Amino acid sequence: MSKQFDVVVIGAGPGGYIAAIRAAQLGFSVACIDEWANEKGGPAPGGTCTNVGCIPSKALLQSSEHFEHAGHAFKEHGIDVAGLSLNLPQMLKRKNTVVKQNNDGILFLFKKNKVTFFHGRGAFAGAATGEGYPIEISGPTAETIVGKQIIVATGSNARALPGAPFDEKLILSNTGALAIDAVPAKLGVIGAGVIGLEMGSVWRRLGAEVTVLEGLPTFLGAVDEQIAKEAFKMFTKQGLGIHLGVKIDSVTTGENNVTVKYTDAKGAAQEGTFDKLIVSIGRTPNTNGLNADKAGLKLDERGFIAVDGDCKTNLPNVWAIGDVVRGPMLAHKAEEEGVAVAERIAGQHGHTNFDTIPWVIYTSPEIAWVGRTEQQLKADGVAYKAGTFPFLANGRARALGDTSGMVKFLADATTDEILGVHIIGPMASELISEAVVAMEFKASAEDIARICHAHPSLSEATKEAALAIDKRTLNF
Ligand code: FAD
Ligand code: NAI
């Protein structure tokens, strides 16, 4: 007889493994199936995020930033580094170790929480019977299990340019971009989105000449315009060659290089030849091999699993979360949906607040934001007040030797409720949490302005930006 579970989760990325753990905490018998394999063929749970996304990219961003600082910034601190050289194999090895620590950590958490893990591909084996949905597992584990409730968390894949499939040698997705074994002299990047900027920064810091080709005429359209303009200036100054409004005409591979023909924003034909080309033009939902049609699971017109606001699919007791459904493709969004769905299955009122999901781009300086941008408030006809404070006037930033950027507050003109907070600067990824908490509690800018912040700390810039709403900055 097939093993029976209250909850079967397909996919152990941040959405799936967190949903599985939360469901187990709530007293359900839980199975989680994931097909990701490490180089030895063993299980590597954690999904895109752990294996070829958030974690390895942040490991390389950190290492490459150390390298850059050792080359330039340390001197100003009175630290002379003689004979600086790059040991790329060690840098990549460290990144792989960090990934493995996370894979092992998830396997440990499954054991601790009594989640039964199956290494293999899970697919619907048919419609629900009285006992639940039969799920067929193939690969290292081959068996059919049954789940009363199914949570689909199968994530996303990199989108290729038409006519230029990823070979991970010359044309790289995020997977290849995180494993280049020698710094390319010339690196091309198509798409100036989050991956293009993060991975472009890594390889530029390590010595590559990086050219980024972006289709849209505006830089980082989802980011507050003032912040995006500042970022464009800084990235260009660092040496990223960013070309906006281009149209890619063709990509052809030679033996050791890739040639991209494109039309620039002025309509002129251009050509670039690169040692490697990263294509980072967005991601597509992954429903490969899930047999969604066998069970009658509905997809939307863009290939995402169709869900309502509660992550319910068209099938009773089948839920879907994370990158495979609508909404931002972010690990923490997937996690929040995982927790909320597990709690809904338990009859609780799980909730994901889409209005307070923070975004971070881990470049240097980092860019982080929550809530609405100034251009969105204008488009929505909302009367607002804005306040900014530059890190240049923050004592801790000066001591760090990193005074780039600012904190920007946007608050309702009448009620003073915080509508958006936008940060470009050191540790923006950490600073944004204060704004998220404030917005969750519907705080006003005045609330933040009146809260005691430690001195000297970067967070004082947050308080000062809130004070700037009423033109009362104390240090600028
Ligand atoms: P995934 O993490 O994609 O996990 C899905 C899992 O399901 C995979 O392990 C897959 O193998 C498995 N699977 C799929 N189909 C089946 C099947 N039929 N049977 C069994 N297993 C299956 N987000 C952030 O918030 N912060 C970041 O810093 C960040 N950095 C990123 C950097 C890069 C380079 C990339 C590519 C992405 C980054 N993201 C980041 C996005 C983040 O990785 C995703 O939003 C997140 O991984 C989505 O989680 P998920 O659980 O929905 O799916
Ligand atoms: P993206 O959506 O961030 O950026 C893609 C960029 O490519 C856009 O600017 C788009 O205009 C451009 N583009 C699309 N088609 C093009 C074409 N044919 N020619 C030229 N430009 C084109 O997607 P990206 O960078 O691939 O990342 C995917 C997702 O992964 C992100 O949206 C984000 O959700 C997630 N991610 C999150 C990170 C974080 O939170 N720090 C880091 C990396 C990825």
UniProtKB/TrEMBL annotation:
Which intervals hold domain FAD/NAD(P)-binding?
5-338
Q: Name one GO molecular function term.
A: dihydrolipoyl dehydrogenase (NADH) activity
Q: Which cofactor does it need?
A: FAD
Main subcellular localisation: cytoplasm
| Group of enzyme by EC | oxidoreductase
**Which Pfam families does this one have?**
Pyr_redox_2 (PF07992), Pyr_redox_dim (PF02852)
Q: Where in the cell is it found?
A: Cytoplasm
The record's comment on cofactor binding reads: Binds 1 FAD per subunit.
Report the sequence similarity comment from the record. Answer: Belongs to the class-I pyridine nucleotide-disulfide oxidoreductase family.
Q: What is this protein called?
A: Dihydrolipoyl dehydrogenase
Gene (name only): lpdA
